[in-house]
Amino acid sequence: MIYADPEVAKAVGEDPQSAPIPELHKAMFRWTELFVKHSWDASPDDLAELKALGATDRDVADWLQIACTQVWFTSSADAGGIPMEGNAVTGPVMQHPREHYHQHVAASAAETTPTGAAGSEPAGWLDAPGTGAAFDAATKIARTRYGFVPNLFTAVSACPDYYPRHQLALDLLETPQSSSLGAAEHALVRAATVALDRCPYFEPTARALLSRQGDRLPDYEALGSDPAAAARNEREACVLALTEKLVRTPYKIAEKDAQGFRDVGLDDAAYIDVFNTVAIQTSLDKLANCVGVSADDKPLLQSSRSAAAS
Amino acid sequence: MPFIEIVNEDAATGTVKDDYAFIAGSYSHMAQTEVPTPQVYRPSSLVPAYFRFGAVQNRVLTNDGTHDRPMGTIPGIMVNFAVSLHSACFY
């Protein structure tokens, strides 16, 4: 139990900034809100604040990775419509049903221009040693896949434990993982997610994936503005509507969204393919935005496999 | 009820069955008692590649199920909770 006093735990669940907890904890909650809701506004000052309050570089590197992985879990829960666990890890904080917390959440993509410095540094804003056995192993695999070491891998090298997760994520994001979702639909989902997340790091990759599907696909800018409206047919509209909902307001996903897939001839495997593509891509987008890493010189795509998909 | 078809552990085969066993084992080790695979992994059970991804996430978060990753200035679980709070998603 993190907060032994149940009243403190309850206060944290309601509003961490008003709870009687250490300033570093409050700063972590503020930073996490940025990560979840508007990562494109991230700047080096956000990480500097955490370090000024006592967090180490290793701490911050770890929190970035944990937050990245947790985005997949929350997306999976919202998209799947799962029942609540009987024994929540959060303990006495869980005094309300999930819907209670929806009133505290604004849409994650407000209509504003990014004010941060996401995508500004080739190696990101953290001290990135770029050494060690785990880094060497991960970069060897990456060189085989892409022909270069992704800037993102260097940027998170202070905490190398997560490389297997990130490499698998990038592998899964290359192509659909179900037979019912088309390659073009999959590319649209991925590109729309990156565009909605305003992620400079993955934007070249998303654009390259779109261009390799053919020149009649909706363009990247349209996908970042009103994805469903950019769709060319009913199936694309359905897929892109779920994509936008999962990026902006995942807590609003309901059973009718899954039924909508069936209504247009898509099956549950396609629904899972779409929500996982969004969940994985958005987790990496937020990570890249909040570590400040700039895009690679080439798209982060395996050239032979991506060419075969076009 | 879940919005989509779920393949539970009693019906799972192949890699999904293996991953169910690993995830349940990981949480059982953490809880010091036998517990089933949590609900949050199950929505992806129909597509083995994504179910495997969930298992890999658990591996990296727990040091391969041992739950002995070094603790930093703040317990990592607080970051998990903070993301859930700001996502309005507790599972």
Describe this structure in words.
The complex is a heterodimer of chains A (310) and B (91). Chain A is mainly α. Helices cover 55% and strands 0% of the residues of chain A. Chain A has 14 helices and no strands. In chain A, helix 4 runs antiparallel to helix 13 and helix 11 (234-248) crosses helix 13. The longest helix of chain A has 24 residues, at 57-80. With 91 residues, chain B is mostly helical. The longest helix of chain B has 18 residues, at 14-31. Chain B contains three helices and no strands. At the A-B interface, helix 2, helix 4, helix 7, helix 12 and helix 13 of A face helix 2 and helix 3 of B.
List the helices and strands and how they pair.
The complex is a heterodimer of chains A (310) and B (91).
Chain A: H1 6-14, H2 23-37, H3 44-52, H4 57-80, H5 133-146, H6 151-155, H7 163-172, H8 183-197, H9 203-211, H10 220-225, H11 234-248, H12 255-263, H13 268-291, H14 303-309
Chain B: H1 14-31, H2 48-62, H3 76-87
Helix pairs in contact in B: 1-2
Task: Give a brief rundown of this model.
Chain A has 310 residues and is mainly alpha-helical. Chain A has 14 helices and no strands. Chain B has helices at 14-31, 48-62, 76-87.
Question: How would you describe this structure in keywords?
Answer:
heterodimer; A: 310 residues; mainly alpha; 14 helices; 55% helix; 0% strand; globular; disordered C terminus; B: 91 residues
Biggest sheet details of chain A? none
Oligomeric description of these chains: heterodimer
Report the helical percentage of chain B.
Answer: 40-55%
* % residues in beta strands of chain B: under 5%
* Structural classification of chain B: mainly alpha
What's the gyration radius of chain A in Å? 19 Å
Our measurement of the CA-to-CA distance between the termini of chain A, rounded to an integer number of angstroms, reads: 51 Å
